[in-house]
C-alpha cells in the first residue's frame, strides 16, 4: 500500500519539526491533498495508525483537507476550478490549460505537545 509509505514519510517530517521545537509528542497532523496527487485520503487514514506506532505521533489525530483541481487557460488566462477528468477552461472552453492546483500534498500544520502537556495525558 503506497499510502503507508506516504504516512511514514509525513510522520518523519513531523517528527523532525517536533524535535526542532523540543516537543515531546505530536497531537495532530493536518494535511492538504489535491485530488490529482495520487494519494487516496481514505487509504491514508487507514494506514496512519500503523505508521504512527512507536513514533512521536503515536496517538495523534490526522486531518485531511481535499483540494480541488485548478487550471489556468493559456488562451484567456482565466483560472478555473475543474473536475479531475475535464481540464477545460470554464470561461472560454479551451483545452490548452495548465494545472496550478490540485496535484499537491502539503503538511499544513502540526499540533505539538510540550513536556507539561504529556505529563497530563
TrEMBL record:
Positions annotated to bind Zn(2+): 73, 76, 89, 92
This protein's UniProt keywords: Metal-binding, Nickel, Zinc
Function: Involved in the maturation of [NiFe] hydrogenases. Required for nickel insertion into the metal center of the hydrogenase.
Entry binding sites for Ni(2+): 2
Database matches in Pfam families: HypA
Protein name stated in the entry: Hydrogenase maturation factor HypA
Chain segments annotated as transmembrane: none
Gene that produces this protein: hypA
Source superkingdom: Bacteria
Signal peptide (UniProt feature, chain positions): none
Amino acid at each position: 500500500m503506497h499510502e503507508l509509505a506516504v504516512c511514514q514519510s509525513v510522520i518523519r517530517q513531523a517528527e523532525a519539526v517536533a524535535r526542532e521545537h523540543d516537543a515531546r509528542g505530536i497531537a495532530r497532523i493536518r494535511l492538504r491533498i489535491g485530488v490529482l496527487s495520487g494519494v487516496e485520503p481514505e487509504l491514508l487514514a487507514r494506514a496512519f495508525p500503523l505508521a504512527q506506532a512507536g513514533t512521536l505521533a503515536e496517538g495523534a489525530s490526522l486531518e485531511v483537507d481535499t483540494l480541488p483541481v485548478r487550471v489556468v487557460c493559456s488562451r484567456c488566462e482565466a483560472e478555473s476550478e475543474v473536475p479531475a477528468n475535464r481540464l477545460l477552461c470554464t470561461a472560454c472552453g479551451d483545452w490548452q490549460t495548465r494545472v496550478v492546483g490540485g496535484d499537491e500534498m502539503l503538511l499544513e500544520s502540526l499540533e505539538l505537545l510540550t513536556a507539561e502537556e504529556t505529563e497530563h495525558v
